[in-house]
């Protein structure tokens, strides 16, 4: 289904989250969702991504920016990024948004 992503550093190596991008970012917001039972069904994250893909505008979510445990959404003419990260071992889903200005976040 989705190719694996070994580490966070691969986001940088594929050009999505470079130090140049972060030098222009002054606004960062994040939310962490933790399942109390300690178990996230393995297909849940992929299901969330599939539903998002159906409802987002073209090219915000693209298959080249989607992996088994990460996805990067690109918004606001490529100025804002949203990282979705799933840690099945610890039953955590993180949502982290980055943008040059606070107004460009949600």
Topology:
Layout: H1 9-13, H2 19-23, E1 27-34, H3 44-55, E2 70-75, E3 80-87, E4 92-99
Antiparallel strand pairs: 1-4, 2-3, 3-4
Description:
The protein has 106 residues and is of the alpha+beta class. The protein is 21% helix and 28% strand. It contains three helices and four strands. It has helices at 9-13, 19-23, 44-55; strands spanning 27-34, 70-75, 80-87, 92-99. A four-stranded antiparallel β-sheet has the order 1-4-3-2, with no helix packed on it. Strand 3 (80-87) and strand 4 (92-99) form a beta hairpin. The longest helix has 12 residues, at 44-55. The N and C termini lie far apart (29 Å). The model has no long low-confidence stretch (mean pLDDT 81).
Summarize this structure briefly:
The chain is α+β, with helices and mostly antiparallel strands and 106 residues long. It has helices at residues 9-13, 19-23, 44-55; strands spanning 27-34, 70-75, 80-87, 92-99. Strands 1-4-3-2 form a four-stranded antiparallel beta sheet, with no helix packed on it.
Provide keyphrases for this structure.
3 helices; 106 residues; alpha+beta
Low-confidence parts lasting 5 or more residues at pLDDT below 50? none
Distance between the termini: 29 Å
**In one word, what is the shape?**
globular
* Total beta-strand segments: 4
Radius of gyration: 14 Å
**Total DSSP helices:** 3
Q: What is the string of helix and strand elements?
A: HHEHEEE
Task: Give me the secondary-structure category.
Answer: alpha+beta
Task: Report the sheet-strand fraction.
Answer: 25-35%
Reported for the largest beta sheet, the result is:
4 strands, antiparallel
User: Helix share of residues?
Assistant: 10-25%
Mean pLDDT: 81
**Widest sheet: strand ordering:** 1-4-3-2
């Amino acid at each position: 289904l989705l190719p694996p992503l070994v580490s966070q550093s691969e986001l940088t190596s594929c050009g999505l989250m470079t130090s140049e991008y972060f030098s222009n970012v002054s606004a960062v917001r994040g939310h962490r969702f933790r399942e109390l039972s300690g178990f996230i069904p393995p297909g849940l994250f992929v299901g969330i991504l599939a539903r998002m893909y159906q409802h987002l505008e073209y090219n915000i979510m693209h298959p080249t920016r989607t992996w088994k445990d990460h996805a990067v959404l690109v918004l606001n003419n490529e100025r804002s990024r949203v990282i979705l990260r799933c840690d099945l071992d610890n039953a955590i889903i993180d949502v982290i948004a980055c943008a040059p200005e606070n107004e460009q976040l949600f």
